[in-house]
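re: ur question from earlier - yeah i can do the single chain one, its not a big deal. heres the input i used so u can compare w yours
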Amino acid sequence: MQNFRNYFAILGVDQDATLADIKQAYRQQARKYHPDLNPGDKDAEEQFKLLGEAYEVLSDPERRSQYEEYSSFWQQKGFRQRVSSKFSFKDIDFSDLGDFNSFVDQLLNRRDEPARSNNGRPPGEPPPGSRSTTRGAGGTTARPATSSRRDAEATLTVPLERAYVGGQERIRLEDGRAIEVEMPPGMVTGQRIRLKGQGVGGGNLYLRIEVQPHPFFKLANNDIFCRIPLTPSEATIGANITVPTLDGPVQMNVPPGVQAGKRLRLAGRGYPFGHDRRGDQIMEVDIVVAPQLSDRERQLYEELRSLETFNPRTDLL
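and the output i got, formated as C-alpha cells:
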C-alpha cells in the first residue's frame, strides 16, 4: 500500500477544514489547473484529476468519515485486520488492493470498477489496451473491451449553450445500444462523467466532455468573455443596448465616453460553479464605424466635425 493520498494536502486544507473551506479550496485549485487554461500540460491535467478525486471524498460527510477512519490505520501493524473489523467489509479481498485508492473504491461501494494499479491511473480506468474510444457519424460511440465486465470510455462533444444548461443527451454506443443520459449543467472540457453499469458486461462507461468553441463567447474559468461592438455615437454619449448572454438577450447601459478596449461587466451572467454561484460576463468594447452613410448621416457627421473641439492627436504633436 504505497500510494496513500492525503486528500487534505492535495486541496491545501487542514484536517479540521469545514465543508465551506473544502469547497473554496477546490474552486481555487481547479481554476488554476483546469485543462482549458493549461493546454497540453500533463502535470496540470493529472493534478486536476487528483483535485476532483479529493473533493469527491472530502465534500461528502460519510465518505470523509470513512476516509479519516482509514487514514488512522495507515502504516500501523494489523491495519488490514482492524479495518476489516471496523467496517465489517467481509467481502473485500485486500490482497487485490494495490493502494489506498483501490480501498476507497471498495469503501465507496464502487465495486464495479477495476482496482487501481500502482502506476497512478485514475479510479476505474482500466489498463492500456483494455478499452478504446471512437466517434462516428452517428454520434458518440464507445468501443467495448475484449473481456467481459470492462469499463469503457467515450467522448461527448457538446455546444457551449448545451454544456451550460445540461439536460438529456442521446448517446449511441458501438455495440448498438442507445442510451438517454441526464447531463449536469455547467459542463467543461476535460470533465469525466461516470455512468455506472453502462460499460461492457456491467462495467462503467466514462464520458469525457468536450465543449465546442463558440463563435461569440469564450469560457475562461467561470467567466464568459466576448467583444461587443458600439457605434461612435453610442460610445460617445452612452446608450441602452441589447446584448446576448447564455440566458438570452438582456438590456445593458453603456456609460458615456467609453473607450475602445474598455471592459464592461454583467455580474452573475457567466458560467455556473458550485451549487448556486456563477461567474460574470465580461465584454470588451469595439467601436465600429458604418461602412456606408446616408446623405443625411454624412451631412450630420460633417456638421459635427466642424463643431468638434476634441483632438485625439494632441499628445502626438
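DSSP finds nine helices and 15 strands in the chain. not sure if urs matches, ping me
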